[in-house]
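Help! Submission page says 'invalid entity' but I think these are all valid:
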Amino acid sequence: MARAELMDFDEALELFEPVIGLEVHVELNTRTKMFSAAPNPANSEFHGAEPNTLVAPVDLGLPGSLPVVNGEAVRNSISLGLALGCGIAESCRFARKNYFYPDLAKNYQISQYDEPIAFEGSVEVELENGRVFQVPIERAHMEEDAGKLTHVGGSTGRIHGAEYSLVDYNRAGVPLVEIVTRPIFGGEADAPALARAYVSTIRDIVISLGISEARMERGNLRCDANVSLRPRAAAGEPAEPLGTRTETKNVNSFRSIERAVRHEIQRQAAILAKGGTITQETRHWHEDTGTTSPGRPKSDADDYRYFPEPDLLPVVPSRELVEELRAALPEPPAARRRRLKTEWGFTDLEFLDVLNGGLLVEVAETVAAGASPAAARKWWTGELTRLANARDTDAASLVTPAEVAELAALVEAGTLTDRLARQVLEGVAAGEGSPKQVVDARRLAVVSDDGALVAAIDEALASQPDVLAKIRDGKVQAAGAVIGAVMKAMQGKADAARVRELVLERAAGADAGA
Amino acid sequence: MSEINAEQVAHLANLARIALTEEEIEHLTAELRQIMQAVEKVSEVATPDVPPTSHPIPMQNVFRDDVVGDVLTVEQALSGAPESDGSRFVVSAILGEEQ
C-alpha cells in the first residue's frame, strides 16, 4: 500500500482551517441488553463470556422474536443527555437502519433517526494548554451494538482477502448511545488535542454517571472522527464553504484520536494543495503505522432506508422523570476538575499533567481507594504512562486504580522501594496478578529484617577497612561505597535510607579488626 | 415525488441483496410505481396537523426491567446456521462493507 503523502502540519494550518466532528459510541453497562434480557457483555460481570453464550432469540433476529426496550437503558440515556446539556425529547421513536452485513442477524440495526432522545447540548472541554472550548452537541440517540466478526484466511488476515468470517453475536444488542457533535470550528492547531480532550471529557461524564465501564480497550467507548479542511478566506472575503469530510472509524485510544485527526489534516492538505479532491468516505485507522486507509464510500442516509421501528412503541419520558434524573446528576466534569485540583493541592503543572494524560478519573479513583493524591499522580503520570507509551496503549488499560492504591500502600509501608514498585507495576501490567501477588511471586519485598541488613553491612565494612576508617574520621560521605555494596548484596531490595542509618551505626560501634 | 425508475429499482435490489433480471426490474418498476402513487394519494390528505401513525394502538413507554433472563445455549444458537465452527457462525467473507 502506497503511503499517503502528508503536508507539514504547520504548513497545512496556514493554508486551511480544520473542521472536526466527533461521533462517540458509548456502550451502557446495564445488566441486560437494549432489547433482550440476555446478559450485557459491556457490564464487567459478563465481560469475556464465550462466543454466542449471551444471546437470546431477539439478538439473533429469530422469527417470531420481538424486542422490548430496557427501561434502565432509557433512563441512562436521558441522564447522559442531560449531562451533555441536551434537551430531552417529549416523545421519540426507534427506527430501523437497514443494511446487509452479518454483524447483525436481522439485516437492520434498531437505532433512532429523526427523533433522538436527546438533542442540542454543549460540553465544556478543557485542553492541556488551558484553552476551554464549548463543544456543540447535535444529538445523542439510543441504538444497539452489532456482533463481532473475525475475518479468517486471506494473506493478511484483514478484511480484504479474507476467505470467511466467524460471527459472535454476544455484542449484538448491547445498549449504545451515540453522541454526535456539530461541526467544531476554531480548534486550529489544537484540533487534534481538542478531539482527544473531548473524548476524554465524555469518558469522565459516563464514568461519573456510572452508566458505562468506559474502557476504550474493550470498545466500551469508541470514536469516529470526521475531519474536513476549508481554504482560508482572504481578508474581508466571506468564509469558504466546508470542505468534503472523511470519517475515520473506530479510533479507540486517546492517543490514536489525536494522531488520527492530525494525520487526516496533513493528508487532506497534501491532496488539496495539489488541486486534488477529497473523497467522502470512511477510513480505517491503523494503530501500528499511524495512518488511515480508505474504507467504503460513505453511504447515503437514504441507502439505509430508515423507517419507524414497527416492533417498538414510542418512548415518552415524563417531565417528572427527566427532572428527577436531572436532580441526580453528578457534578459536571469541569466543576469537578476545579474542586479536585484544590482538594489535591496540585500545582497547575501537576494538574495539567494528569489532565493531559486523560488520567483524572484514574487518579481520583486511586485516591478514593486510599492512596495519597501525590502518590496517585506520581504513579499514573510517571511509570504507568511510560509503560503505556511503550505498549502504545492507555495507562488505564494496564492496571486498575485499586491496584495502584495497593502499590502505593506497599511503598508507604516500606515493603517496596520506588525502584521495586516499578518492577511490581510491570508485573501487574503484564497480568501477573495484584501488586501483593507480584511481590510474592517475584520476591520483590524490601528486606526489612535488620538482622539480614546488619550481616551484609558488617561484611561490607570488614572488606573495606579504609572506608570504615574514613567514616570514623567523620567523613560520612564515604559511607556511599558501603551502602552501594549492601544494596547490591540485597539485589536492590533494601531501603537505602535505612541501610545508611545502619551503616553509620555499625561503623561507630563495629570492631575495625573484626 | 419523482416517478420511480428502473435505475432506482436496480439500486434498491442491490441494497436488499436481491438478484433481479432485466425483466423483473421492468416488472417491479411498474408495480412500485403504482404503490408510490397510492402513497402519494395518502400524502395529499396527510396534512402536517395529522401525526404519523407508527402503531395502530396508541400505546407508549412499554419497558422491561433490567433483569437477566434466559439465553440460548451455543448449540441452540448455532442450530439454524448452515455452517459453524462449534462456537461461532461461519459466513462468507464480504469485502469492504464493514458498517
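Support: the input was valid. A stray whitespace character was the problem, and the output above is from the cleaned input. Residues 1-48 of chain B form a domain with the Histone, subunit A fold (CATH 1.10.20.60).
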